[in-house]
Amino acid sequence: MTSPGAAAARPDPRAPASMSIGEVLGLLRVDFPDATISKLRFLEGEGLVEPQRSAAGYRKYSAADVERLRYVLTAQRDHYLPLRVIREHLAAMDAGALAPVGRPRPSLASVDGRSTGLPVESTGLLDRPELLRRTGLDDGALRQLERDGLITSTSTGRYDLDAVTVAEVAAELGRFGIEPRHLRACRAAADREVGLYAQLLAPLARQSDPGARDRAGEVARELVTLSQRLHGALIRAGLRDTVGQ
């Protein structure tokens, strides 16, 4: 297994020695179609990548810069890590230590920030038969999850990464006798949190400067991470008496 630090440092064989921001964006969009120039500038402003500047002041990215950006974007997309944590990983890598996020690869469904190992197409979308096959969920259970609003499909009837995650977790919970109908309370609790966090994020996302959406996305990832930690701690505490620990 390739170490994370070595994977992140491996130069991209497609990359020329010195690239403009537009060229870098073209490379990254193969794996990260939502990447934008404003996103790359935002990550630079956050100190996660430091491209050199030409005499005229234009950004010039090295192959190592591209791999660093791949590392950051993968950590956000596949592991939902906030920039604060990614920055710590990069600092550890720069110091010669290893960070727990691997080389970019096809999207993986995640639970509580940990990869489940379930691959998703590079588009992030699966059709219904593929979703059922990959998650082990049966069609009746999927229909119940859809009726209860835990899973929604796109207008073309396909399913994104979050839908895959919900389906996989529901299938795993089914092994313990927990049926999809029992998960309605999770949907209701999530809706309450979404309402609370949306009030915080909406003013930030509406700002007119180019980096506003990226900052809003970063705050959203921080909130998701904190919610996962809080939810896990509350469940563990609530079950402590039951399991006698």
UniProtKB/TrEMBL annotation:
Q: Which InterPro entries match?
A: DNA-bd_dom_put_sf (IPR009061), MerR-type_HTH_dom (IPR000551), MerR_fam (IPR047057)
Q: Where is the HTH merR-type domain?
A: 40-92
The answer to whether the entry has keyword Signal is: no
Superkingdom to which the source organism belongs: Bacteria
Task: State the organism of origin.
Answer: Pilimelia columellifera subsp. columellifera
Q: Which protein, by its recorded name, is this?
A: MerR family transcriptional regulator
- Give a single Pfam family match: MerR_1
Task: Give the record's keywords alphabetically.
Answer: DNA-binding
Concerning SMART domains, the annotation shows:
HTH_MERR
